[in-house]
Amino acid sequence: MKRIMSVVILVLAAIGAKTVAAHTVVNTKNFTVLADETLLSPIVVFANEIRFEGLATDDIFLFAERIDWTGNGSNDVWAVGNEISLTGNIHDHARLGGRTIRVSGVIGNGLVAVGGTVRIGSEANIKGGVTVWAEDALVAGNVEGPLSLSAGSVTLGGVIRGHIRIRANDIRALPGTRIEGDLVYVSSTEFIPGPRVTITGKVARSPLPPAPRRNLAFPLFLYAGALLVGIPFVLLFPDFAGAGARLWRHSFFSSLAAGALALGLIPMLALLAMVSYVGIPLALVLSATSAVLLFLSQFTAALALGGVLLRRRGPQGVREALLVLAAGLAALYVFGLVPMAGSLIFICALLAGFGAVLRALLRTRQEPIAGGGAFRAAEISAVPAASSSSSEEHITDDYRGP
Prior knowledge:
Structural class: alpha/beta
Shape: globular
């Protein structure tokens, strides 16, 4: 699990680092590139839905609820979304992250896919190798290069010309599968290929190591510590916490991208500042501030998730808002205990919270936070005592300026 979490963080940080060179940033509801259109420069797109049918001659970064790629990419394509469908061509690397990922196109220089469900269909043709982290993975296309799979359930098919490394609880091979290389797997059950499955190399298996006894004392300690910090944070800064939670809810993927971008840029800026003696204090302040904001970001995510779990909407009193915070934090820490998919959810929620906190700091407080979204949150802000029939401070769903 630690390895998976580290890779996910590195992937997201790489997204942030590479977007520095992008010339164009687009934030819209629906983004469409028609078949006769060409993008000549790098571009970063934030949208609810992206449909790409044309040609991208440089790197492209896509963040949306749904991404449908039927076009052509000459360079790298990075895509993060809820549902990703790739049926077109990518001549360089493809880096995909989402809940559901379907690939049935052509990729020229390797694929990395991180998601809940990853489907590489029979029409897919991938060169340069494939790396997949998922709950459920299917590889049924033509793969030239090494194949690395880490999933709960793995199904193999098609033609794979390269060595395979698998870590999964359940491994199956479809009839007609051809593997031109070694297959080494780690599983609690033995993989028995059928008579119509061809493997030219060796097949070696190592059983899963026994699961260590999970000690819940440390996670409970972290949860209690976070709650003790989160309660005064919510009470002292209700407007700021509410703004961050609302941004987390209304523009989750934009906040996720902003958090990943910041996570990639801040260490680079700190290292550059430390080149000179004058910049060392600035680097230390930048690092400390970003660490504090990253820690506080869990509270914005917790307020949003807690609102979903408890179905709290509209004006809320202090007790209700703190209950939402406690429930949301509990959900985050429970997600963190679940291998693979749960850990990925935890990381994405935290990064989105980090991005929402940064955006809330940069946004003018008089500007209302608009937008829709699938996430209901407990956005909070203090209401003057004069506006309430009770002397108790209230917390409302509406964002207020000073």
